[in-house]
Amino acid sequence: MPLEKNEEKLQAALAAAASVKRKGGLGRGLNALIEGSYDKKGERPGSSDRLVSHPVNSVGFISVEHIEANPYQPRTHFDKEALQELADSIKIQGIIQPVTLRQLGTNSYQLISGERRLQASRLAGLETIPAYIRKADDQQMLEMALIENIQRENLNAIEIALSYQRLLSECNLRQEDLGDRVGKNRTTVTNYLRLLKLPPDVQIGLRDAEISMGHARALIGLDDPKLQVELYRKTVAEELSVRRVEELVRNGYGRNSAEAKPKAEGDTTPASSAVPVAEIRRAERHLTDRFGSRVQVRPTPKGNGEIKIAFDSVEDMQRILHILQPS
């Protein structure tokens, strides 16, 4: 999200000053750049009970004791070792980039973004940290927290997918606008959202890095959730590559159909299609990626057939129709 010009200038000053090593964090000269960061006696807010009031769209030092967590924080797990490393860096260099807060009342603030910086600052023993104060309602809080995490944190694929889903459902964003808000193309966003259609066991495996997103995308090509779980477990047990999983899916893994089994001698039942199964699967995968929805290609022995495109809602149908329209 774009920041106001005064914030950009102040953050540039913070970044420049942080390049100079100093003992005890931010120096007096840098603090003087921050509106209201010192009172007339040169004392930093937080050193006494007389905290200055910080107007909206300003940057100042806020006592960490007066900052409460963001209830809309999409990330629940933070690596303790990484937090300690950040805390050690903060002890030497101070806070380079301010956290973002909204003011709830007198000496009461709520975090919008910067959870890791806040936690690490507490570990480092800081009493106050630089913060940008802005106005935000609950929906804006959620949207900013989600987008800040998507853009800056090392989220796993399921956390990203859940964040996208929350932006759609709770922030009333349309899917065609979501990509622009998070800086991703629509196909990328759609591929993440499709991960949420996988069975819980597979989602947990992806979250825990037992399989990669490439594996998960290949598993989406199976229609049956039971087969998805079965192939997921086989992938983990046998350490199958993404290419191997894709191959198994293309060849009709687990299907007891004529297209997945060779015909018995003397069987006059016609094959489901003269088109090779692998070619059908490639077409389905290509179209699924193109439309961001499950696509089934069903040719017949006569050379004709049908293509089925699934949609989840009226809005999703309209999105697909928009893609089909000639440019």
Automatic annotation (TrEMBL):
This protein's UniProt keywords: Chromosome partition, DNA-binding
InterPro entries on file: Chromosome_partition/occlusion, HTH_ParB/Spo0J, ParB/RepB/Spo0J, ParB/Sulfiredoxin_sf, ParB_dimer_C, ParB_N
Segments of this protein annotated with the region Disordered: 256-277
Classification via Pfam families: HTH_ParB (PF17762), ParB_C (PF23552), ParB_N (PF02195)
The keyword Nucleotidyltransferase belongs to this UniProt entry's keyword annotation: no
Domain ParB-like N-terminal span(s) in chain numbering: 60-150
Stated family: Belongs to the ParB family.
Protein name per UniProt: ParB/RepB/Spo0J family partition protein
Taxonomic source organism: Hymenobacter glaciei
Origin organism lineage: Bacteria, Pseudomonadati, Bacteroidota, Cytophagia, Cytophagales
